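Hi C.,

You asked whether I'd gotten around to modeling the 216-residue construct. I have! Everything is below, sequence then structure, no commentary in between.
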Amino acid sequence: MRRASETRLSAQHTSTQSTSQPQLSDHTQPQLSRQSTVTAFRAQDSGTSERREMARLFLFYRQGATAGLKTSSRQPHKRFRSSAFSSGVKKSWKPKETWTHTFVCIAESDQLVIPSRDKKLILTEAGLGEKRITFDKHRDYEHFHSSLLKEFPKSREGGGLQVLRSSGARRTLDLIPIPTMGYDIPYLKNCLGQAIACIRPVQKDLDRSPIHVQVG
């Protein structure tokens, strides 16, 4: 009987231990499996998002660094400079050595008005009229006189030449006094300014017949 009693006590202890441990039902086990799977997916998605964010930041800083290198590699805009400045030698400004002015050669020795347009055409056909003449600005009377004879060959027939200037807005002419050494270029340049200059003969009128130009 003692051995039977011990056997019953051992069986009761085993039954108590088995009932004290919680048993998972078939319905609970799939829920735990799904929760662990969702947790694993979330952890994996979180890691993927972090990697994407790191890649985006790395790309942003890389593009910024590349743009900075491109900007710094550009050469600054260079202004055009002459060879004189680039060589360190300043090129000095030189004034013109010539003087150009308009002269009208008239035919009558007593004329005191500027000729009209029609009369200028007649004078031009005769080898007189209006021309722009360039002189060396520091030369004397000989240079002035020879330049006039070259442009107006008929003027040598008048027994000398006088220079007159237009008077303001009027068409009248004022005689420019002849210096002791004759008209030189600096003197005429100062007296004429922007006024129209006329040349007229001193002793006799000039020939106004048209010049026949030979062709061929």
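If it helps when you're writing up: The longest strand covers residues 98-105.

Thanks,
B.
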